Amino acid sequence: MPNVKKTFYLTTPIFYPNAKLHLGHAYTMTLADALARSHKLANEKVYFLAGSDENTQKMIDAAAVAGVEPLVFLDGIVQNFMKLYSSLDISYDQFIRTTDAKVHWPGAQALWNMISDSGDLYKKEYTGLYCVGHEAFVTEKDLVDGKCPDHGTPPERLSEENYFFRLSKYADVIRQKIESDELRIVPHTRKKEILTFIESGLEDISFSRPRKASWPEGLGVPVPGDDSQVMYVWCDALANYVTALGFGRDDALYKEFWPADVHIIGKDILRFHAAIWPAMLLSAGLPLPKSIFVHGFITSGGKKMSKTLGNVIDPEELIETYGTDTVRYFLLRHISPFEDGDITREGFKDAYTAHLTNGLGNLVARVMKLAEDNLGPREIDVSGTFPAEYVEAIENFQFNKAMDIVWERIAELDTRITSEKPFAIVKEDPKKGQDMIERCVKDLSSISSMLSPFMPSTAETISAAIRENKKPENLFPRI
Ligand code: ME8
Fold it and tell me: With contact defined as beta carbons under 8 Å apart, do 245 and 258 qualify?
């Protein structure tokens, strides 16, 4: 039988390109990358999607403030996204842009037509409160003191003709699929949250807006058969998860990878992914994603880090000072993936010194110095399996737990060297000492494999040092 690899399709939110990305976005991408790399390590065929959500009013507004043509502005920001992903070592396979009329629009329109054929779209005059920050209509009960609590801005009152999607029709089916974990929502607290939301009743939602004269050509997916309207904004954005695979144009990837194994999202966009998106797919008769992993927010000074609130930490700045893998390390180990986690510059520095300079860096130097001084070049058999608890932690998206397991190994090996003293024994009984050192190198190699999804270039440096039997340059110099 041909050896068919298990496939693994992983998506990330396509961020709004109205400003530079901050550490919160870097967090989502780092979680996703660690997951993608773990599945590659397990020999699966991974497809990892990133992208940007471009057909929006807030991008137009930001371009106006910057004094640049919207489409030029977009190109600049998207380059920034990609630059950040490259400095974070994000191994995405495709970057989808929703202004891409060749890649995204045919599928978005095909999906629209399927939903329309099911009788789930109707036109209606709508008056409501619109939060530009969320790019969504909100209700009075979402507001605090008349303002959106997430963005601190009052919503606009809009009155216009829109196409509406019969979301209400799908509430029961979606609830049942989430309850039974056919659509698995992780963590459990988010599953409960979305079930409560669905039980409180789903209302039909706006799926289009009149095309604005101020919007440039090339922005906004035209509603099939009604050029006066563009898709807006979640129906356009959510469709990216299938259009990127060629849905509606060239189905090869779609057939291979859909349904998605995991949509990774932040907790702010749970409703869109766990209610609206499944309803769209059900309406179109397409399979639902298998799971949605919902992470918490990175806060800074106790408040959500957000462009609008102006308390952002620039990931590039941290990468410049500490290096890519330190930033990845901190995000993956010191922030609980299921809850909010605060990050301060001091906490970051302390973790660096304690666990990277003194922990991992010190151990690598210690073991490799012993190896370089005492072992001749020799083949080290490094094949081995990962501990079950490590694999299980990753399957449950508990990257911090998986890394705790790695750091337990680091501490164990360090303690063993101190107590068994191979450095002394090798002088009295070279054969015995060499065997002990060889065992240390093997354990270091297994630590390096376990680290590779999280800190890929550090893992590669360690592996290379082992191959060459040479102590590497100081991995995490004191700062
Ligand atoms: O919502 N902590 O885009 P967006 C952790 N375009 N993660 C954070 C964060 C924080 N403080 N702030 C943002 C959109 N994020 C839509 C998505 S998908 C079809 C369309 C991350 O630019 C987190 O992943 O507002 C959150 O869900 C996402 O950025 C929102 O990004």
Answer: yes
Query: How far is ligand 1, taken at its centre, from the CA of residue 97, in Å?
Result: 16
Q: Which residue has the tokens 């309207």?
A: 229
Q: pLDDT of 435-445, one tens digit each?
A: 999 999 999 99
The CATH fold assigned to 7-296 is Rossmann fold (3.40.50)
In what side-by-side order are the strands of the sheet with 262-266?
94-97, 45-52, 7-11, 262-266, 291-295, 184-186
Q: For the chain, give every domain's residue range.
A: 7-296, 344-468
Distance between Cα 465 and ligand 1 center (Å): 38
CATH superfamily of 344-468: Isoleucyl-tRNA Synthetase; Domain 1 (1.10.730.10)
pLDDT in tens, 29-65: 999 999 999 999 999 999 999 999 999 999 999 999 9
Label residue 380 by pLDDT band (50, 70, 90): low
- Measured distance CA(306)–CA(48) in Å, rounded: 25
Task: Give residue ranges with CB within 6 A of ligand 1.
Answer: 13-16, 24-25, 27-28, 53, 237-238, 240, 265-266, 268-269, 297-298, 304-306
Residue 53 CA: which ligand 1 atom is closest? 6
State pLDDT tens for residues 128-146.
Answer: 898 888 878 888 888 999 9
